[in-house]
Amino acid sequence: MSLVMIGLEIHAQVTALKSKLFCSCRGNYRDFKPNTNICATCSGLPGTLPVINRKAIEYSAMISIALGCKVPNKVMFYRKNYFYPDLPKNFQITQYNVYGFSSIGVEGIFELDDLKKIRISRIQLEEDPGRIAYVDSGMNVTNSALIDYNRAGVALIEIVTEPEFTNPKEVRLFLNKLSLTLQHLGVCDTLLEGSVRCDANVSLKGGNKVEIKNINSFKEVEKAINYEITRQSSMYNRNIKVEFETRHWDDRKKITFKARSKEEEHDYRYFPEPDIPVIVLGDGFVSNIKDLMPELPLQRFNRFVSKYKLSEHTSNILINDKKLADFFESILKIHFSPVEIANFLITDFKSLIEDDVENIDYLTNMKVKPEHIGELVKMIEENKISRITAKDILIKIFDSGKLPSEIANSTNSFKISDEKILIDAVESVFNTEKSAVEDAQTNHEAINFLLGKVMKFTKGRADPKIAMRLINTRLNKAGT
Ligand SMILES: [Zn+2]
Predict the structure, then answer these.
(1) What separation in Å is there between the alpha carbon of 144 and the centre of ligand 1?
(2) Ligand 1 mean position to 42 CA, how many Å?
(3) Ligand 1 geometric centre to CA of 276 (Å)
(4) Are residues 467 and 322 in the same domain?
């Protein structure tokens, strides 16, 4: 038995949907004032009937297929009964695997890397509850709670893995790959605030399983699991039994804490949802969905390597940031020079935005557009500007949004290939660096030194090839 066993339950909102799962209220509830994105159905009034969102079935099937799951022919919804203020109907409509009917995805296999695969036990489609906002009246005293039902009824998928992770790093790798897959499918924007949540169960040495609830971002999951492993190991070392329990993750204090015991005592009394009939997907359903599916990260990686002749390293960097990969491909439509453009993006371009990584939407809001990078790289290739100058120009584009040629003109940044100007520069360097000139007759390194001086003299704008030729000519002259 492995020392550490970790399983995950991930909730991700299907953010691409225009409406909620069972009514026509908006799927994107984020811009609404509290309790204005609700109707009789999603606020659970008696006598209302849910109507299933067809796209939600299609998107969740797409996710299931992308994560290596089987999509059954018939799917069915269940009521999960519990009382909580954020749940207007006092039950959640979800899926459950019993009586030969199953959730939208089952028996998945997701490849973590060449060596390891993680089995996914099921993927289910369900409704999100509302949100509770606790009003803090100062001194850490919480004396009232407000409820916002705008989110209630938003489509959510739950992905449940087998407890097959053996360390927090595998979990991080899985979540990164999962995010990337969901982003490529274009159905779940995992970067949106509150769009993903994760529960993790952790057990050590075959002992009791501890469930950590409410981890509110993928970034926090690894930290929460690390904390829990340390906590449980230290209990083993002191011969204290680890209880089967539910704990919460406090992302401010970075600790897990025991949930109030009432929260653990659940009997959900699942029963089939009588208001939604069994959904028969039909024979052609899965193949139709497969036809509609966008390119997945691995396929895109293979295409980048074969079609664009990019290295695996470069392709990986691009694919791991979907928006950057999209940006790259839109530049190619303007100037088709894949290798040069990819290299420019992952070095010069990325080094400028790296300081601003918190701004996850950098590619949407910035002034640098595909035509800027296209023109800039073309100018490097045509030997009009140096690579160093290109980076300076890029900084100016970030600020002004002006075209590279315009900036190069106004800042006098074009390379100097005019021989008359360069002969003067060489002459001037030869006059001031007499001993280096003498050395250069026998020592090649001294020639490079002279070239460096010419570059400095022209503020980096001299065309190095021409400058080198002129230096050699001048040296030959001096030698005779
Ligand atoms: Zn509604």
Answers:
(1) 26
(2) 4
(3) 16
(4) no
Q: pLDDT, tens digit, for every residue of 18-28? A: 999 999 999 99
Q: Mind listing the pLDDT tens digit for each residue in 209-261?
A: 999 988 888 888 999 999 999 999 999 889 888 888 889 888 888 888 888 76
Q: Which two tokens stand for residue 432?
A: 């001031």
CA 351 / ligand 1 centre spacing (Å): 45
> Ligand 1 centroid to 39 CA: how many Å?
4
State the total domains in the chain.
Answer: 3
Which residues does residue 92 pair with via DSSP β-bridges, in sequence order?
A: 80
Residue 149: both structure tokens together: 């039902």
Burial-class residue 145 by CB neighbours within 10 Å (0-12, 13-18, 19+): exposed
Using a CB cutoff of 5 Å, list residues around ligand 1, an ion.
23, 25, 39, 41-42
For residue 250, which of 215, 285, 217, 291 has the smallest C-alpha distance?
215
CB-based burial of residue 230 (10 Å sphere; 0-12 exposed, 13-18 middle, 19+ buried)? exposed
Cα 196 to middle of ligand 1, angstroms: 21
Question: What are φ and ψ of residue 132, in 5° steps?
Answer: -105, 130
Same domain, 334 and 445: no
For residue 379, the surrounding DSSP H or E stretch is helix 370-381
**Domain end residue (candidates: 267, 288, 309):** 288
- For residue 257, report the distance from its CA to the centre of ligand 1, in Å: 35
User: Considering 379, 410, 441, which residue would you say is the last residue of a domain?
Assistant: 410
Structure-token pair, residue 118: 């993680």
pLDDT at 1 over 50: no
Query: What is the pTM (predicted TM-score) of this model?
Result: 0.82
Domain range enclosing 311: 295-410
- Is the domain of 431 the same as that of 397? no
Which amino acid is residue 1, in one-letter code?
A: M
pLDDT tens-place string over residues 132-146: 887 766 666 667 889
Residues 262 and 384 in one domain: no
